[in-house]
Amino acid sequence: MKKKLLGLSLSELQTVVQDLSLPRFTAGQIAKWLYVKRVSSIDAMTDLSKQARQALSESYETGWTYPCESVRSKDGTVKYLFKVSCDVGTKSVESAIEAVVIPDSDRKTLCISSQAGCKMGCKFCMTGRGGWHGNLDRAQILSQIMSIPEGPQLTNVVFMGMGEPLDNYDTLSAVLDVMTSPWGFAWSPKRITVSSIGVLPNLKRLLDEHKCHVAISLHNPFPDERLSMMPVQGAYPFLDVLALLRRYDFTGQRRVSFEYTMFEGFNDDKRHADALGRLLRGLECRVNLIRFHKIPDFPYGTSSDRTMEAFRDRLNTAGITATIRASRGEDIFAACGLLAGRHQEADRKTAISDNR
Question: Is the pTM value of this prediction over 0.90?
């Protein structure tokens, strides 16, 4: 099986060309073709000699993955489905992942996945229900940005799709390097947000090694209630996550925000708003209140607009900046993992039928 070029750093590309006895400057040419001109084949790298392209093609491919399906919402949101193969132990596991383009006036944000499925087991997450099917590699993550029609127009990328980004940290870190380095996309880190439920060791690495924005999934200020929905609370208590965040400066260009999905009758009353305000007091941050997209067999619905507005106003009065995130794409399997889950279920039924 050929190795993938997409996702390699400039220094890694220098090792590649050295191993192939090609001139050292060839690495910079390859990086430009991959990340600036965004070609999907080695043959398209026309300023490499024919011999260099042939030598490269014998062991490498670019590694692009293309979407196999897309659905468009009436509000302009587009969800793309990718089929991927992930190495899990000694096995290769076939799965499906999603990426979502969210247009908003002069902004075009892409929400991308970092894993096929997820290990974290949050009760309200459709992706988590389907289990974990492997980590995406660098090429599979970058392909979500590069192989969709909107790729060249993207203004922002958020790692908020399927999977826990910090559970695939080494790959995430390499992708962030590609996105922000002069030899890569040369993006400002301000265009990138990484969301996490608070995997502490790798959260510290992210904060130390990168300058992108951070979004922490909180969803409840009371430890026992949060634990009932989010098993990670047992391993990495939110108070420990908050203590780590308070050691960093978020008064400059890097921001930290907290994601708070609102469930009717579970986490949306005055008691929760006041506790959240006390918890975050003194930290420069923003709270994003999120409407819950209903999923099957889950006991809670989303809070009413009036309840969400009262919750927001109570936080703002307490000195915590809070906003209600606009709900997008509800007519196209909006909850993350729904489209991929339905696709995988269809594949499973087809396989059962074929084996009869």
Answer: yes
